[in-house]
Write a structure and sequence with these properties.
Chain A is α+β, with helices and mostly antiparallel strands. Chain A has two domains: 185 residues, no CATH class; 82 residues, no CATH class. Chain A has eleven helices and four strands, in the order H-H-H-E-H-E-H-E-H-E-H-H-H-H-H. Chain A is rod-shaped and about 120 Å long. Chain B folds into two domains: 141 residues, P-loop containing nucleotide triphosphate hydrolases (Rossmann fold, 3-Layer(aba) Sandwich), CATH 3.40.50; 75 residues, no CATH class. In chain B, strands 6-7-8-3-9-10 form a six-stranded mixed beta sheet, sandwiched between helices. Chain B has a four-stranded antiparallel beta sheet with strand order 2-1-4-5, with helices on one face. The chains are: A alpha+beta, B alpha/beta. The structure holds adenosine-5'-triphosphate (ATP) and magnesium ion (MG).
Amino acid sequence: MKRPPVLARAVARSLVPFGGERAAALVPHARLAGPMPWVIAIMVALTVIAGAGGLALSNLAHTARSELSGAATVQVVEPLKVERDRQTRAAEAALSGLPEVASLRVVPDDELNALLDPWLGSEGDEAVPVPALIDVELRGPANAERLTALRRALGPVAPAARVDAQSSWLGPVFTAISSLQWLAIALVVLLALTSAAAVWLAARSALGGNRGTIEIVHLLGGTDAQIARIFQRSVGFDAAAGGAVGLALGMAAVLVLGRQFAALGSGMVAGGGLAAIDWVLIAAIPLVGVVIAMFTARLTVLGALRRML
Amino acid sequence: MTGDSAEVVTFDNVGLRYGTDREILSDISFTLHPGGFYFLTGASGAGKTSMLKLLYLAQRPSRGAIRMFGTDVITLPRDRLPAFRRRLGVVFQDFRLVPHLSAFDNVALPLRVSGVRESELRKPVSDMLDWVGLTHRAEARPATLSGGEQQRVAIARAVIGRPDMLVADEPTGNVDPDMALKLLRLFEALNRLGTTVVVATHDVHLLRKVPDSLIMRLDKGRLSDPTGALRFPPRREPPRVQALA
Ligand SMILES: Nc1ncnc2c1ncn2[C@@H]1O[C@H](COP(=O)(O)OP(=O)(O)OP(=O)(O)O)[C@@H](O)[C@H]1O
Ligand SMILES: [Mg+2]
């Protein structure tokens, strides 16, 4: 009978780590076949959309606030047109000399009428007396101090002038924007938590079918670190694939939405664009997903191994 | 690493119970010596697999001491055990092949775990598959192999790393007598190279095929040694295997 084959003992045994392509081949179950990459793709896409929405809203609120907070409106409330025009000119002159004022603009009657026509109708400009309006841009926020300085300057020359910070009548808008912002933050947090949980569960279930393999490699002398690394790599690969797809889908949705909002042409919405840093934050979402998936894989495998001797 | 070279394994008053049940193994004491060829027999349910699990470090005993290659493996930290497992070759009663790996990759697995380079393992794995008659099935998945073919893959995997101790649980249960003999020759060849061999079987015909073997017998969780295998030091006179059958 032929001699059975035997291996040189030196070749047969070493404690070099087990890795690379061959090690990865141990867990083809976890490879794109299962639901995990798709779960991750969907969760990443949703998180990207919510995150982009939240960031855009926050940018919008910020721009609106800084644009409006430095502005004041002067209304000259005087029914007689001649007197109103006189006081308006006097107010314009008084204001332009003030150090608090950066620039000002008397809103022309035409523009005012055009604004009011839909409400008041156009049958005669004097039918309803309309106050004259002066838009004032301040050097700094429209706080009580600056507004008082304006009032003091206007008092003697234009007694019919009323000074308001624009932010004061935009107050409800700001409140609405900041509620929306909180809503977006809450949504992003909820989605992030759900995604984390989904990724956790998906990674766990991807490993579920490999429990036997884990045990076999363990019994053949694989170390915990070796085995954890194999599964971590495989799950990380899946999560990265899912994350990339999710990011692409989410980004596409955000870009389409962004273009549609931009088409509205409103100054307010234009302030809601995303800055470079926002895109970096959004791109980090799938990375966080990959980290969670790999961390889960590691904990799950090590947990299973610790129950074995 | 090999401390006392006169012993591969020593069990001292070992007992095993699963959970809170009665003891499956009681008062087990024996020493296995380097180069020994041991059969473990006993009725179904006597505790053979349970004892082998202790031997291949898959199970901790409930009491008693186990020394392996001169080291107390009971008190050893978990992270030191893989180095011991790599010195063992195990044929599991239920084979435990990795289902999605080919026969070739299953046989190569212990070498890969030990970090053997691909270029160095191709030939030994092919030779081993040839020996167990599975060259034509090298790329087959376990699910497409017959019971006997799976068993031969499991045996090839156990011996490929040339272990210091081979532990085989019913390794010939699913093969025909000719193949059983051929596999036994493989164990003997390994044994002559210095590997301690422990084969659990209830096939009494097998015992007679290895004249130098020593026999341990489990009966309801207790050990007896019809060939004097368990003595300290053991008698290496020709064992009376024939008398048993
Ligand atoms: N994991 C376990 N939990 C509880 N009881 C177990 C477990 N494994 C085995 N047993 C029990 O221990 C006893 C011995 O089982 P073991 O598998 O060691 O027998 P065996 O001698 O290998 O039998 P066979 O020849 O049929 O393989 C049996 O009564 C079995 O029911
Ligand atoms: Mg058994």
